[in-house]
What we know:
Low-confidence stretches: none
Shape: elongated
Largest sheet: 6 strands, mixed
Structural class: alpha+beta
Mean pLDDT: 81
Radius of gyration: 25 Å
Amino acid sequence: MLLDISRALRTPGEDFPFMHRDAIPPQEIFGETVTFDDVLLSGHFSFAGESLYIRGTLTAIANGSCAGCLKPVKLPLEVSFEEIFARQTRYSAPVEEEDPEEERLMFEGSKVELSHLALTLAVLDLPMRFTCGDDCPALAAMQPEDDTPTHACQKDMPDQHPFSALQQLLTKDQEV
């Protein structure tokens, strides 16, 4: 969906409020499909020089499954953002990539596509795994009953960590 920025182009430097509803397609994340509802970008935009400045908040509802019991989970998202879109016209010189890893946001004409921005903001705000809460019976069953930590200490079990072979070589070298 496109955001009409023609008012900002006519009056550079002036701030304009906006509310933009968008749709984010289902995303496959770590083997699980996550869907998004009620995606709304709201805030202000202004135009200065050859850049469009957009700042505001993305709100959405992410739908996934609990990592423990697989029940559906609705997670509210709220992400603040500030982005700069560079104007590109057919008469402007091609943009030279200073850093090929850096992604530049571009726009052409009087409308800006915000779908990629919404997708990026929403996915980056997701937790590593969805949980239905502290009262999840499956997650509670995975926790030990006593207060011992769930990870093994490397000193107690030296052969159980990924660098145990290197540690053994170091120990043998010191004995010689």
